[in-house]
Amino acid sequence: MWLAAVAAIVMTGCGGSGGSSGGTTAPPPVATVPPSALAAYVGTWVSACDERELNTVTITRAAGSADAIVVSYKSDYYANLNCTGAIVATWTQSADVSAVYAGSVDSSIVFTPGTSATAARVDKVTATLPAHTESVVGSNVTHTVRNGQAMWCIDFGGGNSSCIYDQGAQPSQTVAGGLYLRGNELFELSPSESTYVVNERFTRK
Fold first, then answer.
1. What is the extent of the structural domain holding 109?
2. What is the pTM of this model?
3. What does the radius of gyration of the chain's CA atoms come to, in whole angstroms?
4. pLDDT digits (tens, 9 = 90+) for 133-143
């Protein structure tokens, strides 16, 4: 689960009066970017390697809003285990997520399933993913249909392959979530009763 603010242009008219030989023109206002409660999350973040898959999240500030960010996701698939060798496939979405700051709350986070929650101050967000499609591209990718289900299949060689379902056009979705920073770690959170659980952990790239 994340640019520069757009400032209104103010036009100032100046005119001479009586026999004035000239007038002065006021300098244009300087556009400023207001502080953002989500500024600390802006940047590029990567997940831990999952065999051959490495997820990347790029977060930028949303244009025209101090308290919104744009989150772009992609997943790269590597030829070898431990995310080594060449990237042979990349998964992306046709739309990015918009996340709007919804306040901060003193809560707790379950960082690992089965462990006790840790007290933490969470930045709440409302995240919206517009209607979108997904795609997987790469030199070793084929699009096929198996048992009536469309999918992309990635050939890693040596008899190893992995397939990703093609879900077609997906409707817009809006969910409540949270963000938390711990050093150079970013945690994408979901509320669970009175606490938050970790969807995914990223480190700053």
1. 39-204
2. 0.80
3. 23
4. 999 999 999 99
